[in-house]
Design goal:
With about 350 residues, the protein is mainly alpha-helical. Helix 7 packs antiparallel against helix 8 and helix 10 packs antiparallel against helix 11.
């Protein structure tokens, strides 16, 4: 009776040898005691990648199970989904979900000009923030300098995204009654200052504060104040208008419903506080923040698409083309300031690490 063999053909072996050389086997994950304190998360006891591997190993760890896997994939997939949704929106000239075509009062769709440029900047800042966040979680364990550099870049992108939200909500979502308020007169400058302050305090706390409580306070307080100001036009509109009269209001409400719990989980290490070691790979607080924030950002983008299509015909008449361009220029100025802050903090971190190495 002939024997049946399952050995792979020689051609497959010849193709797999170079592939195996290009894709080295990754080391197993380790416990928190096996990595420096800088890389540890409170109450997360295992699932850490060894520190000091090559960048290729950390890039390949995208397909490995560890305590950063969900953080990376959640924001990476969100960036891809938001990009694809924006492309569909642009190609279909404002086509909504499932091909439903939403037009403004004068039947205008999407094209890049002074009225739509703030929306384009908002989408680009959201995609950049999500991508940088995914890169930071994927590569930060390479070295202490890499950790600081990627964190600073992540905070800068987060601050730019904050201001882009303020800009888009001010132009597309705010109502006439809110625009007459005192807050509306200083809304964009205040949002810009608070966004930059969020970037500065987060960078400073990451570099100088070792205790998690002090670091978290320096991150949560300015970010919380900034987002309270940024969401003020949405809150006013949700309270003042009937939701049935505008299809974007339920989306804005859902976005806030998702965002507020994510702020809670960002501030407190729940549920891993009550179950240390049981939420290491899935369901620790930072992963919950990433997942909820990804859905929140996608829903906010959809709501702004609807607001944009409804408000666009009267936008230039209301604000003026020059004012819209000045708002876009303020976005670029804030982005430059945040990037400069990240670079300055990186230089400071490098000098501090060199000083510590000399003392050793």
């Amino acid at each position: 009776m002939p024997r049946v063999t399952c050995a792979p053909p020689s051609l497959c072996l010849s193709l797999l040898r170079p592939l195996k050389h290009l894709l080295p086997s990754l080391p197993p994950t380790v416990r928190d005691v096996d990595v420096p304190p800088l890389y540890r998360k409170r109450f997360v006891l295992s699932g850490y990648r060894p520190v000091g591997l090559s960048r290729r190993c950390y890039i390949l760890s995208l397909f490995q199970i560890h305590n950063e896997t969900l953080n990376v994939w959640s924001h990476l997939l969100a960036a891809v989904c938001m990009s694809m949704r924006f492309l569909v929106f642009a190609v279909l000239q404002g086509g909504g979900i499932l091909g439903f075509r939403l037009q403004g009062p004068e039947g205008q769709g999407f094209s890049v000009d002074a009225s739509s440029l703030p929306l384009v900047l908002y989408v680009l800042s959201a995609i950049t923030y999500l991508s940088c966040s995914a890169a930071a979680h994927l590569l930060q364990a390479h070295s202490e300098m890499e950790h600081h550099s990627l964190c600073f870049l992540d905070y800068a992108c987060m601050a730019v995204y904050q201001y882009s939200c303020a800009m888009a909500l001010y132009l597309y979502t705010s109502d006439d009654a809110w625009k007459q308020s005192m807050l509306a007169q200083i809304f964009l400058p205040a949002s810009a200052v608070l966004s930059w302050l969020s970037c500065a305090t987060c960078c400073y706390a990451t570099l100088h504060f070792c205790r998690p409580l002090h670091r978290k306070l320096c991150q949560v307080v300015p970010m919380g104040v900034a987002f309270m100001v940024v969401f003020n036009p949405v809150a006013h509109r949700l309270i003042s208008y009937s939701w049935k009269s505008n299809s974007a209001l339920p989306l804005h409400f859902l976005q806030m419903v998702l965002f507020l719990p994510s702020a809670f989980f960002f501030s407190f290490p729940v549920p891993e506080l009550f179950y240390p070691g049981h939420c290491d790979i899935v369901a620790h607080s930072h992963q919950i923040v990433h997942v909820m924030l990804s859905f929140s950002m996608f829903i906010q983008q959809e709501a702004l698409f609807k607001d944009f299509l409804w408000r666009r015909p009267a936008l230039i008449r209301e604000f003026g083309e020059e004012h819209l361009l000045v708002v876009c220029a303020s976005f670029l100025c804030l982005m430059l300031c945040c990037v400069m802050m990240a670079i300055a903090m990186r230089w400071r971190a490098k000098a501090q690490l060199q000083k510590e190495q000399r003392w050793k």
